[in-house]
Amino acid sequence: MKYRSIALNLISVTHGWNDFLAIVIFPLLPLLISEFNLSYFEAGSVVFVFRATSAFLQPFVGYFGDRTGKKKLLLAIGIVCLSAALFLTGTANSYIVLLVAAFAVGLGAAVYHPLGVSMLGDLFKNKRGFVLGIHGAAGGIGVFIAPLVATYFAMIWGWRPFLMILIIPTGILAVLIIALLRDLKAKSVTKPVLSGLANIRIILLMFIAFLITMCTSVMLTFVPIFFVQGMSLSIFTAGLFTSIMLSTFIFSQPICGRIYDRLNSFRREMFALLIFGWGVCWFLYTVTPLPMSVIFITLGAFSISATWPILFELTLRVAPKGVDSTAVGLVTGLTMVGSVSSMIFGGIADLHGLAFSLPFAAVLAGLAGLLCFFLPRNLEEQNQFN
């Protein structure tokens, strides 16, 4: 029990720092647009390259973790690679170098979620919604402080030195991961078990996750830009409002994870309602002035962030035994492809403006919510390979 507590705390801290590193570039996008004279499409392409690289690699990282059992070493390597890639971003002198750095960020970001989530799934068989909610809250803290810290130090030091110095705390955390976490025995992964990943429930979850990430990517990419360019706020004020929005990531996940654990027949409906909630709030955010726009986007962020522990728990629930990391990698990997929405909506914004393009993202939430109703009402662990 003591080790489980240590593992939950350290894995959650790692999640928080991983998400801090993965999101820290978003509040700095207005500065990158100005310094490199980027279009909205080019800014979205930086996000897409990072996310798409991560998407492609996550299933392979999960599979490798399942086969070798070397999950703690992979976690440490991944987070160091992520920070090193941000260091490279700090040296960029052109749009092309930014894209190369974004590719490197994607390499590092591919590691955490398929391994960290499955490690908790191995340790906690009961109340996983709440455990993954606590884990998600730690990620929420990282997401919350990233805009504040990034924009503050970008004003004081400049954005380049800020990105470079992040390698120091990352190295310390990597040492703690190797020293304190334990690897479980490697799992036997056979072809019949792998074929079990092709069941309809996992495929549906993959497409729902894809649409959720399209929504989240539009939000993370264009909310800071919209605050600066659409509402004429300073970079720090935009970072402050973005942090207010993202503060909901801290408490939405444990609260909704706890509620989810206590539900039996309405888990599917809860999942759909949270997704629909983001769509409504996002549309209202794009058509209302301050301060109501901040209120609506904060409520929307609460809804969309609360879907993640549910998505992870459902994935662990329906995954064949022995390939939980691979299943999480497949689902989270496809989510990263959803970042193509940053390029799509960036391209529309280049042609017609942000105010015209952004409201249409609410349609994505509507589609994801509708897909939830194609999931079986009872998602108990009845997989033939378990």
Would you kindly provide a brief summary of this structure?
By secondary structure, the protein is mainly alpha-helical. It has helices spanning 2-23, 29-36, 40-68, 71-89, 95-109, 112-123, 128-156, 159-165, 167-180, 191-195, 200-230, 235-246, 248-262, 267-287, 292-318, 324-337, 340-352, 354-357, 362-372.
What does this 3D model show about the protein?
- It is built from 19 helices and no strands.
- The chain has 386 residues and is mainly alpha-helical.
- The chain has one domain: Growth Hormone, Chain: A (Up-down Bundle), CATH 1.20.1250.
- Helix 1 (2-23) runs antiparallel to helix 6, helix 4 runs antiparallel to helix 6 (112-123) and helix 11 runs antiparallel to helix 15 (292-318).
- The longest helix is centred in the middle third of the chain and has 31 residues, at 200-230.
- It is globular, with a radius of gyration of 20 Å.
Strand and helix layout:
Blueprint: H1 2-23, H2 29-36, H3 40-68, H4 71-89, H5 95-109, H6 112-123, H7 128-156, H8 159-165, H9 167-180, H10 191-195, H11 200-230, H12 235-246, H13 248-262, H14 267-287, H15 292-318, H16 324-337, H17 340-352, H18 354-357, H19 362-372
Overview features:
mainly alpha, Growth Hormone, Chain: A, 386 residues
SS-based class:
mainly alpha
Q: Portion of residues in helices?
A: over 70%
Question: Given the C-alpha coordinates, what overall shape results?
Answer: globular
The mean pLDDT is: 84
Quaternary structure type: single chain
Which fold name corresponds to the CATH topology?
A: Growth Hormone, Chain: A
Query: What is the H/E string?
Result: HHHHHHHHHHHHHHHHHHH
Return the CATH class: Mainly Alpha
CATH superfamily: MFS general substrate transporter like domains
